[in-house]
Amino acid sequence: MVPYDALVDACLAAGVMPAVVPQLKSITIGGAVAGVGIEATSFRHGLVHETVLELDVLTGAGEIVTARPDNEHAELFHGFANSYGTLGYALRVRAATLPVKRFVAVEHRRFGDAAAFFAALAQACSGDADFVDGVVFDAGRLVLSTGRFVDAAPYLSDYTFEQIYYRSLLEREHDWLTVHDYLWRWDTDWFWCSKNLGAQWPWLRRLYGRSRLNSRTYTRLMRLNSRLGLTRLLDRLSGWHRESVIQDVDIPLERAPEFLSFFVREIGILPVWICPVGGTPRADRFPLFPRRSCPYANFGFWDVVRRRERFPPGHFNRLVEREVARLGGIKSLYSDSYYSADEFRATYGGDSYRRLKARYDPQGRLGDLYAKCVLRQ
């Protein structure tokens, strides 16, 4: 239950950072290992669970075991990723860190088409950058951002209050931040999702205040809205039909332009975050989140699709799932999912998951992954 902002503070005090720091301060390291965590170092170090060296797990059988990639619990070590607490809870995690310098120098390069953007992204991943990610603002405005550790900076930008980071991608070619502020550059506005809570209006931003501009505040407000149904009421009164499409999907990098073309045409939520994920030597060893040992592009999109026409429930999310499967990709399970039981098990672990449940949770105390992530039971 250690949140990443506390973990980052402790690590930076020792001159290092976790090898992969997910984008939001409130994410816990246990959650990022039991789910899937990603950020701009993932092009080199993979997903959070690929940086883990060992973990102590309280299993559904009531035992505490130490799982490592080379001991008698190696199958649990590799199967824990993407298990969402249905195999056990991480009590202790030992994971890799990286040495840091004081600052990060950021370069933003703008592109007018997807092919050139993804080609440059692939090239950046093979270079000397420490961080690589990007944003698709629309089909003709794509920005590739690379970051490098540096010892000195001519100035420092502050995106923790009145200035908004994602807008700077279209305004600046070069930028400098402290390492701390770079790691949390997306948290102040939850990428760009703060717009749904009015936090990008300057007067309301000042009313929120610096201390409330963060993902924790937005999470509380969105949960309150979900309970009260205010947005649903407004949509009914306005005649709009809406579907939340909140997803992170990983697509093999060579197929990424195809997915983007589909997404802009059929879904149309913008901006979209792009984060490359490297084909690390361990990438294909995690059966509940299987990836080939090849580069992927993560697409992050978090908003609602509004249409005057009424569609069946889950229509747009199902379109995404089918396209991800067609292109040989995989999606994270924190989002709404609509897979059949057979489709789900063929993608997320199948026989490996059944063996792990039989050994580490034989009485089913912790629930089933499909029931939890698809049926929401």
Topology of helices and strands:
Layout: H1 4-13, E1 16-18, H2 29-34, H3 42-45, E2 52-59, E3 64-67, H4 74-79, E4 88-95, E5 97-99, E6 103-111, H5 114-125, E7 131-138, E8 141-150, H6 165-171, E9 174-178, H7 179-183, H8 202-208, H9 215-228, H10 230-238, E10 241-252, H11 256-266, E11 272-277, E12 296-307, H12 315-326, E13 330-331, H13 341-347, H14 351-360, H15 369-373
Antiparallel strand pairs: 1-5, 2-3, 2-4, 6-8, 6-9, 7-8, 7-11, 10-12, 10-13, 11-12
Helix pairs in contact: 11-12
Quaternary assembly = single chain
Report the β-strand fraction as a percent range. Answer: 15-25%
Largest pleated sheet: 8 strands, antiparallel
Strand segment count: 13
Structural class: alpha+beta
- The largest sheet has its strands arranged as 9-6-8-7-11-12-10-13
Q: Could you say which overall geometry the principal axes of the C-alpha atoms support? A: globular
Number of helices: 15
Distance between the termini: 22 Å
Can you give the helix content as a percent range?
Answer: 25-40%
Give me the strand/helix succession.
HEHHEEHEEEHEEHEHHHHEHEEHEHHH
Average pLDDT taken over every residue: 95
Radius of gyration: 21 Å
Q: Which regions are unreliable across 5 or more consecutive residues at pLDDT < 50?
A: none
